[in-house]
Amino acid sequence: xxxxxxxxxxxxxxxxxxxxxxxxxxxxxxxxxxxxxxxxxxxxxxxxxxxxxxxxxxxxxxxxxxxxxxxxxxxxxxxxxxxxxxxxxxxxxxxxxxxxxxxxxxxxxxxxxxxxxxxxxxxxxxxxxxxxxxxxxxxxxxxxxxxxxxxxxxxxxxxxxxxxx
Length: 165
What we know:
- By secondary structure, the chain is mainly β.
- It has one domain (6-164).
- It has three helices and eleven strands, in the order βββββββββααβαβ.
- The protein starts with 5 loop residues before the first strand and ends with a strand.
């Protein structure tokens, strides 16, 4: 399944996985800190489904002339030992990227029409085909989300969509 519409900024690059996304992705790395053994673990619902959040945001209605929508994906990974967790600086311990919270943004290719329509925004730094994170409609984003959800088993995953606009 084509996931070129997802640019991963942090964590395991799920866009490179050809089949279903495993529920335990990002889990299992262990390290010792202050005499305790911590393990990377994902966030789960009460019915044991792994949680993925997709946040849709926009400045439409808040900023004059704003017409775009943005979407960011999060699959949280925490460092857990019993009922406690740690984050931030870990005394020099480096957790490999594939065991960290996955964060990615939905992207699409920029068109010549958009560059012509908004040269002040796109004309100086962008070329036709560059991947940008700004969408002109919710339908575009929702279509990509629907496509991405096919990679996540509904028996193992809960996808929450958070709308901040």
